[in-house]
Amino acid sequence: MTTLDARALNRATLARQHLLERADLGVLDAVAHLGGLQAQEPQEPFVGLWSRLRAFAPATLDGLLTDRHVTRMHLMRRTVHLVTAADALAWRDRHQAMLTQRMLGVYRRDLADVDLDELAEAVAELLADGGPRTAGEVGRALAQRWPGVAPRTLGDAALTVLPVVQVPPRGLWRQAGGAEFTPLADWLGGPRPSSGTGLVRRYLAAYGPAATADLRAWSGLAGLPQEVDAVRDELVSFRDARGRELLDLPDAPRPDPDTPVPVRFLPAFDNAVLGYDDRSRIIDDAHRGLSVAGTRFVLLDGRVAATWTVSAGVVTVEPLRRFSRQDRSAVAKEGRALATFLADGGKGRVRVASSRT
To answer: Name one Pfam family in it (predicted).
Structure first.
């Protein structure tokens, strides 16, 4: 069985994620291909799409959100994801048990006397009367029925046991404000049949080659081996440097490991980093903790090499290792392009801090 080293896996990941070269894809097709974009920070998907698409305009994503072709909801790993309407309807029921268990991992004792089916019925009635509500409003209203439970706990639990979406203006370009929720069925219609084997293929198309542990880490779902086995005969197998079996679609791109890679700026919580159990294909173990801290990354030669922030129109890059003069020039060039995008076409400015030794 062929062994793929970290560099080969890196190039495959970048190709699947449209980070090796920007794609001529529509925004809806890109969101579908990626299996959604992690979006608990509402503005971050705009950077993720800008880094992946050749001609991305924030107004296009805004239109898809307001026209209900894409939506925001808790899904993979019980984090907020921006997904297509089709995936929201097909995948939400498949994730229900995981969402509930992760919620109970936080609130099990607090909810000991709360029947979750009754809670789901109560929040459905509440949201049917008066339109979208914030989690705080939901919790305070339900506290009248369950006065012994903190409103915050009730709100979080209720919006987990009932499938809901976050409605605009949350998630629109340059918009701020709290999340308001409405039932998924009211916003997009009823659920659609979902195939676990379809989820396996979709994951591999955007993240493969990958181990079953990587698929589980991305989705948060348990019990996937049976679904993997159902399509195993359609897949090809490799090994990584640790000896793990990696599965992949036969015709998916696996570029030459020496393929040149442009500088790319990733938003916070980007799934190109978080979508794996073993993230060593893209980030050093020494920096792994940054990936769950909301840190924005710069990829140099396809790997996390710096972090970035933006303030007062200036993109500031902080290297995590030593940069050559050529590295600094390439990072500065892409950083200026990003700053211009974030400034809505205004003059972009970038500052690359001194390299670390």
So the answer is: AlkZ-like
User: Where do the structural domains in the chain lie, given as residue ranges?
Assistant: 95-162, 264-352
**pLDDT tens column, 100-152:** 999 999 999 999 999 999 999 999 999 998 789 999 999 999 999 999 999 99
- Choose among 64, 16, 355: nearest CA to 206: 16
Element (H, E) at 298: strand 296-300
* Dist. CA 194–CA 93, nearest whole Å: 8
Q: How far apart are alpha carbons 81 and 48 in whole angstroms?
A: 12
Judge whether 182 and 164 are in contact, CB under 8 Å.
yes
- Rounded Cα distance, 168 and 68, in Å: 9
Segment holding 137, helix H or strand E: helix 135-142
What is the C-alpha separation between 20 and 148, in angstroms, rounded? 53
The DSSP result for 14-47, as a single string, is: HHHTT-SS-B---HHHHHHHTT-EE-SSTTHHHH
Using CA atoms, how far residue 13 sits from 119, 204, 208, 274, 306, in Å, is: 41, 10, 7, 12, 19
CB count within 10 Å of CB 309 equals 11
Q: What does the alpha-carbon distance between residue 279 and residue 145 come to, in Å, rounded to a whole number?
A: 45
Label residues 116-134 b or e (16+ Cβ within 10 Å = b): beebbebbbebbeeeebbb
**Reported pTM:** 0.94
C-alpha to C-alpha distance for 36 and 45, rounded to whole angstroms: 9
CB contact set of 240 (below 8 Å; sequence gap of 6+): 3, 4, 5, 6, 9, 211, 246, 278
How many CB atoms are closer than 10 A to CB 325? 7
